[in-house]
Design brief:
mainly alpha; 3 helices; about 85% helix; globular
Amino acid sequence: MSGHYTSTKTLWSETQFEILYLSLKKNRPEEEIALIVQDLNRRGHKPHRLVAKARNEVGMAGAGRLAAIIKRIGKRA
């Protein structure tokens, strides 16, 4: 049963990553992106890894925007 939970958890994280990339590409509001980032953080994904993965998927501009959003989230926390 734990194998099913792990693969479901992994699938959800990968879905969240895809939503994050699409949100960055479509220039969605910062609040929407922040919610995705916070959820991924709760699932154990570190901010620097989020930015690195985003850089590969959406380029430097998208990754820079994500880094700025993560920095602002940190100041609010």
